[in-house]
Specification:
There is one protein chain. The protein is mainly beta and 258 residues long. The protein has one domain: Clam (outer membrane lipoprotein receptor (LolB), chain A), CATH 2.50.20. The chain is built from three helices and twelve strands. It has a twelve-stranded mixed beta sheet with strand order 7-8-9-10-11-1-2-3-4-5-6-12, with helices on one face. The longest helix is centred in the N-terminal third of the chain and has 15 residues. The protein is globular, with a radius of gyration of 18 Å. Keywords: Signal. InterPro entries: DUF2092. It holds the Pfam family DUF2092. It comes from Stenotrophomonas oahuensis.
Length: 258
């Protein structure tokens, strides 16, 4: 779950560190409800079985000012995913607008309001491998990255310190089961559709800040929409290419409002 904590940073993204040493066996730990583990595993299988999907997420991210005051800012994340190694993601709010394109070989990062783009070539890996490694290798972090990691070895449920079923809830007409989990440095909750086993809402609270900022996303899935390679391919138009600088987060410009 190391990507979950990144969601609280500027791009609705998480810091590293959740893949710590495994906790004790879930079966022997009374804080671990096996039904909650099973639900996450089934969710991962449902995600991994999707050959393509479009997703719109309505997000709300808390930021903590130097004096401890919290600000809650709304945004939208749009994904189009095609196969194992093609995707497009857009991060949009009043504070920022970014698009990222990946074709299995090249990652392109584009700022539509600024009309600048940059590329990283010769990546040659799956979307899951890119998302798992991009933070440490490139300094690029993806919103809702765990959509690519749930149901893979990059997401070990053995690191759970607690897992429980909270209850049930209807989200936009979809009956869901509500689960809560704790891992080193983060508490997170997920509402899983009973109909599709896909996540409908995610909430993450980081322990890295004593103010405990929270990130929340409500997910609207479209698994039937036709998606072509053209939908996930960057077209530069009149945009200007600039050099890629790995150490700089691609969306860390909220102060500039662009």
């Amino acid at each position: 779950m190391h990507s979950l904590r990144r969601c609280l940073m500027g791009m609705v993204i998480l810091t590293a560190g959740l893949l710590a040493a495994p906790a004790a066996s879930a079966a022997a730990d009374p804080a671990i409800d096996p039904a909650a583990i099973t639900a996450v595993e089934q969710m991962g299988k449902a995600l991994r079985a999707l050959p393509k999907f479009a997703l719109t997420a309505s997000t709300r991210t808390e930021y903590v000012l130097d004096d401890g005051q919290k600000l809650s800012l709304a945004g939208t994340v749009n994904y189009k995913v095609l196969g194992a190694d093609h995707f497009f993601v857009e991060i949009l709010s009043d504070q920022q607008h970014r698009q990222l394109f990946y074709d299995g070989h090249t990652l392109t990062l584009f700022a539509p309001r600024l009309k600048y783009y940059t590329t990283v070539e010769n990546l040659d890996r799956s979307s899951q491998a890119l998302v798992a490694d991009a933070a440490t290798e490139l300094g690029v972090e993806f919103p809702l990255a765990d959509l690519f990691l749930w149901g893979t070895l990059a997401f070990p449920t053995t690191s759970f310190q607690s897992a429980l079923k909270v209850g049930s809830e209807t989200i936009e007409g979809d009956a869901t089961d509500h689960f809560a989990f704790r891992q080193p440095g983060v508490d997170w909750q997920v509402w899983i559709s009973r109909r599709t086993n896909l996540p409908r809402e995610v909430q993450i609270t980081s322990h890295s800040d004593p103010a405990l900022p929270t990130y929340q996303a409500t997910l609207d899935w479209d698994t039937r929409r036709a998606i072509s390679t053209a939908d996930v391919t960057f077209k530069p138009g009149d945009a200007t290419r600039i050099a890629f600088v790995p150490a700089v987060a691609v969306v860390d410009d909220t102060a500039g409002g662009r």
